[in-house]
User: What shape does this take?
Amino acid sequence: MTGTLPDLTTEPSHFAADSRHWHPFTPYSDEVHLKVFTADVARNETAVMLRAEAGAQLGVHDHFGRVLAYTLRGRWSYAEHDWVSGPGDFVYEVANSQHTLVADPAEDIEMFIYVEGPIHFLGADGEIVGIETARTFADRYLRFCLDNGYPAPELNPY
Amino acid sequence: MTGTLPDLTTEPSHFAADSRHWHPFTPYSDEVHLKVFTADVARNETAVMLRAEAGAQLGVHDHFGRVLAYTLRGRWSYAEHDWVSGPGDFVYEVANSQHTLVADPAEDIEMFIYVEGPIHFLGADGEIVGIETARTFADRYLRFCLDNGYPAPELNPY
Amino acid sequence: MTGTLPDLTTEPSHFAADSRHWHPFTPYSDEVHLKVFTADVARNETAVMLRAEAGAQLGVHDHFGRVLAYTLRGRWSYAEHDWVSGPGDFVYEVANSQHTLVADPAEDIEMFIYVEGPIHFLGADGEIVGIETARTFADRYLRFCLDNGYPAPELNPY
Amino acid sequence: MTGTLPDLTTEPSHFAADSRHWHPFTPYSDEVHLKVFTADVARNETAVMLRAEAGAQLGVHDHFGRVLAYTLRGRWSYAEHDWVSGPGDFVYEVANSQHTLVADPAEDIEMFIYVEGPIHFLGADGEIVGIETARTFADRYLRFCLDNGYPAPELNPY
Assistant: This one.
């Protein structure tokens, strides 16, 4: 038999901390910043760092997928739940839950999060004021890079 | 050492075709019926049969996750794409895509679908008229069972 | 601001039933045939049709991920469990389970399956005799196409 | 209509850093320790901290699913690849890849990892010397708790 099979080999991707830029989580908050590592728009999955200033709040949001959150520094909670997450803690969030992020006033917070599915941000009457997806996370960051003269990063993890 | 480990054994779950009831896909269409096998509300994943009458349409919807669709009978297409799916075909849908289901007028259609993430149904001006999740699929079917005196099915797959 | 964002638009992929070829599930059985729609080697996920002759068995296998199985025709069971799956039934299999497929002697079976993670095939003493992954499913089918002069199909779903 | 629907409400789970114990990654290494947050044995997914002593190596392993790895301190690499991961970096690993973890000799390393699918540890001739799954991660930690008189933790995330 002649001919060869296509090579299907894959390998891990490394994203250095300084290969991404912090950018504001517009239009939701000036006090919350993001650093997007990867955004898989076909699966709706995003690997992203989140930083919020001490005391910042991020409006009520409604999850339609899981969020895996590992806290690096500071303490934060959800107004709707009675636990507080600090450095080294892990929070496993599920679809079908709704809450309001509150950063403790004592210190800025930073966490690594893996977001699956969209997040709806809600207004005072429960109306949808914004829908975040891997696509919007990617577009916001790509726009930021374009506006600042940075080269467009490769965000699709594979 | 005394004491025993918790038993973590798992096993497959079997859902017989006649263990589920067809019910209308309210409020979207009287011509489209569903049969829900499983609904994982924490992950937002639903295994469901979909039947539509010949010629039926299901309004524009916006995907926020993947849909795996295997066609059993009839032919259907998306108004926005140029292929037609018939019996034995597989359609792999991704997040971040938007389309209108059209059943061929010659024959009723039936398919097995695995839905990940929510689906937004859109109105004439692109406004959201409904959001479907594993939770809404489950609630609709559980309500149907309750209204018809059927016992509540176990929908969580594990 | 000048410049444009990369276009991140995605769309569904359609795989016609006759765009794929049945091929034997070597080396496990001459009586079991596959038709691979998609194989995502980075995620280890495969969408595949499986046909087995009436009375065929597929040796003990050990699951390391989920399998979603929708039966089209014939009846089959796992020697280790007490249910029988027939046309229209759905089976939700989980990681961490081990079993032997047995096709009912009355009729050939056919099912659509979505396989996540690897499957280990085991010998008489529980030893591993084969490991199936999206990569091996892809390689087997690509080899079959090469050997028969068919063009190499695109198997990566996105 | 009388009767009520089952309540399908879900909510996030918080796992405090000090609610889990470090334990050795037996039998692979005395220099590598784990702290398991969650283990979903049906999906084969594990959220776990990994610590390795400066200069430690973890034998060749073969991935059958993705691993999401966020580095907290120290520097590490894979002998087979040419990048080095340091604090704040993210590594996205895919199925179908094989490599050897090497901790930089200057400093202990620590990372948060989310492991999907099994990992095979390989011997000098490529033979399988161990298979790690959510089940083995759970069993190892539950055994450690039992042996040390700690109560058995709840590891299933939902």
Q: What stands out?
A: The CA atoms of residues 21 and 139 of chain D lie 14 Å apart.
